[in-house]
Amino acid sequence: MHGVFVLVLLASLLLATAFNANKITPAPSVAEEQPTGPIHTLILTRHGDSLWNGKYPGCRETFTGWSDVPLSPIGEQEAIRTGELLTKYTGQVNIDAMFTSTLIRAKMTAHHCYWAYNDRIQEKYRSQKHYQYYNLPNDGQQNQKSVASKQQQFQAPAQFIIDYRLNERHYGSLQGIVKAEAELGLHGHSPEDVYQWRRSWHAVPPQLNDDDPRRLEEIRKYGAICGEEKIPKSESLQMVAHHRIRPFLEERLTPILDESYNKSKSNKEEGGTALVVAHANSLRALIGVICNIEQQCCEDSDESLRRLEAMKIPTASPLILQYKKTSKKGYYCPVDGLQQGEAKNELPVYPLSTLPLLRRSNRSYPPNESAQALESSLAEETMVMSS
User: Fold this and answer.
1) Contact 349, 321 (CB under 8 A)
2) 207-245 tens-digit pLDDT
3) What residues have CB less than 8 Å from 226, skipping those under 6 apart?
């Protein structure tokens, strides 16, 4: 009898170990760390509709993850429209870098956005172009400088960077399965598990086996880019945040924005600006890292975590998130430029239309329009953040 009890105890310990194997211990509190440095601005946009997002006739919403699925015709139009929106709201903003993932649906969207900037530059050049100056009058040199200054007011992102760490979260063996079928239990999974795998910060979908053709194709395609050991077999949002997004912020994105700010020699608090074209879950993970989502739920409540888990980011709908570094290396502090005090938003992610309001030194809205713009933008944000 004693031997049976020992066996049961050992089995329980093994199960507990397996359950917690993929859980990452939350980092220590950063609440006491002080924000430092300038306020950096991120423009976050999800790629346009892909053939597996289900909008295009004949296509069904399918778990995609690292499967390299292109944009649908609807997605291409969304990407073009996103580029138009970006050039509308960032015409007077220097974008220091555009980042995207290695997946074709994000790269196609990013290229359409970049082309929109180039098209806008050419359009402005044509509208402002003067004929070649021969026999200039005395003030001709000054006029030429004035024209050049106007042309320089609008420019494309200074860098275009592809980084695998922005790839979508890996959905493991769910990849390629139609979501509605999985939710009905047609592939052997309970609806509750499928929901957790889609929305939860911690839940890890079933892994791909080493000999699975999907796994072998990912190794063939991405092994030379990031190394076979860095290609996941499955990921939770927490794993994406810890293993990919936090290092990306610390090693790649923030140093570029810091360098841009230092080169500008500005005394203002306004830092650099980056455009990130990625995926719903890698963007949610990025928001979670900057907003210290795990520290908040450890110290306070899990309200912010629930909001992040419920957040749905539509395709090709740019959002704004501002942040500062803290005195603790690799940790950040979100900046809410619209709400203060008790109304402060713990996840200060706002629609692109709020950018002129957030960039306090460059507000393009007249005072009598600011309130209307803010009300409209917050209404959009409520729609984006709803579950």
Assistant:
1) yes
2) 999 999 999 999 999 999 999 999 999 999 999 999 999
3) 102, 164
